[in-house]
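Alpha/beta hydrolase family protein
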Amino acid sequence: MRVKGAIVTRFDFGDVELGARKGAFRSPNRGVLVVPDKPRAGAPLVVVSHLRMPGCTGMISAYPCPRGRTELRMDHGMTYLGIDLARHGYSVLIPDLSPLWVGEEMARPYDQTAGWKKIVGNQRDRLALANRGRDRGFGAHVTRKIDMRKVGLVVHSRSSYIVPAAVTAWRRTSPIASVYSYGSALQPHDVPYPDVPFLGTVGSLDNDVKLTSVQWHLERLDRPRRTAGLVATVPGLGHTYVNRTLSERKIDERAACERGCPDAGAHERFLQTSTAAWFDATLRNRRNAMPVTATSPLPTRLAGREALWLAATNARAHSVYRGTSRLRGVTRIGDGKVIACRRYEAMDLEPHRDRCPEAKIGVTTSQAAVAHLTLTRSGGARFTTTPTSRVRQVVLNLNPADTRTDTLGGTPLRLTLVDARGGRHVQNVSRLNPALKDRRTAEDNGAYALGTIRLPARGVGDAPVVAVELTGGSGSGQIDVERIQLVTG
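Structure:
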């Protein structure tokens, strides 16, 4: 089927067996391929791996569907994304995975990761043959048009679990060189991703996986990386409306969305714009606003929507502070206050001795050891460090620890770098930075997750930095500081 800018092919290669016992479980080997309608040689391949949702009407997870129930194709629900990426010059493979995801668990009653590799690996192999003119299962129009040397992978929800195995399995044939995740189902205890460029996005109103992927990423920030590792939380978006099969049936898991919430079109535009920009930056090395290097500024907006980033520092960096049970080298400034404490999961009601003070109005969602600061105009905390030379950038992971009651709209923050020569280099951080912004709405009192702020080390030059000071500057407030780093080089 030809549409403007793309050719869409629906294919079916029969069934494959899953599990150890023949005939116990099977899945179709089918999906959608979308390529540019006038492809130039070398259209990079992107694989779109969709979410787990019931594949039959009546919210029934089964394959085949029971009598009287109609099959729901989640791969068809992502075809719009394939068409848009094809218009940007990519070839897009969208396997049908609903039958594979029928089981509630990844490993029982059959291994879903092994099934993914079997199904999608077969489709990739046949696509490689078709690209060489040796397989007509996708049609003759794909011959010598696809670049499979660097593959992009889009994963949604349940599909996020297969990334490590897929990267390993495809390393020698068609290396997965970039990963984009939407609404990841990863939990804090799950394995880290391989060191390939990774961008995770999650809607603040995602009532399915909530913000578990942010906590998962937080617990892995200390792992050394050579490539970007990013998670962006986007206000208003949910879990299901990026899949047209679900949005057309008004299957929306978001709570408190009676008015003013982004519709299906807004979800689709966000996914289209952000995936194209991400793969342009990571597969084609095109310079854009994507923060793919350690010193890239973190834009306040992603694909036209506000973004709260939690970013790994994939560069040489000196750690000034990392949340611990003791405040070593941390002292109070003026009439400010600072204590060491820990944020626990909201449902953990144990009387932990190190539990942070509860916010009077807002709710903090990150589970981490932090320095809890009370800031005033000239008061706050000083973080002393060993003299660090050639500082290029300061990285702060923090969040407001209370909803504001004034009209400032966010928590004021002043950063001062103190150098070994006595120089003081001051920057005021915008209180409307997504990491500091007031999250209060008409429906609730505001929820706060840790966010990353990157600031250039202005004026420091060659002088070694010996301390980082945080005060309120233009106002007062409370913040949790999870880490402070100095990027050098």
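The first strand starts at residue 2 and ends at 3.
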